[in-house]
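Bug #77: duplicate submission created two jobs. Keeping one. Sequence:
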Amino acid sequence: MHGDHLAMGETFEELSIRQNANNVLTAKFIGDYLLIVRTRSIELHTVPEWSVEKQVFETYGCIYSSMLTESIANEAAIFARPRTDDRYHNWPTDSVSILSRCTIGESTTVRQYDLLPNLKKKEPRSPENKGLTSVEVLPFVYPAEYTRILDVAPSSCELHIGARGKGFWIQTRNVVTRHSEHPARCLIGFDITKARLEEGQTLQTVDPTAKREPRIVDNVLRVCEEDIYARTCSMGEVFWKKYSLVSADLEDTVGRIAVGDRDGMVEVLDYV
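Kept job's structure:
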């Protein structure tokens, strides 16, 4: 299994040639696996086992798997619910969602990819299962396409998501203050929750942006109707794209957002 891969229509050599233009956007440890999102692909690696002498054990379960996406991503974030049982080293039983911000021409979108659990997965570390294909040992099923897509402003950036499913991105919007309209850098909040289907309901009735009806209940992405934070900016900042609001980060354990500006000032906001 060492070096085995799964790529949509491309060989490993073709994928390697494109690595220079396939930069890493984000990565996350999930159990005994490392999930990596690049600009053009989604990759899965197994975390190596180390001995006391810091030597890598030779295991049967070394997986390298990759799927090429249909569009080039600028940013990405990974959401995986932590396991509540003692099998924390295993892949989650819930869907793992990847949010990626893509720009095609003048259109900017946030696309959601759901990695559904592989119900037919076999244990690659067992000697009797040596020689399995990558599809048989992957802990999830690669999606054929994105689950849902949202149109966002071209000025959007700083895509963040926490362990509880709350997240945000930053974009420029017009806000009304004292009966006047001004451009502002705004934090747009969103939440990822489980779709709870009642009898007779389909996923499309719960989430109209869903592209397909899954075999396992998907994660639903809901965007807040109002901004969770806004700071006005001048037209010069908009023209040169040099804003006073430089960055923001999320601490999802107690629900706080830290916002930093160009002068080094930091504001801490409650995000419930």
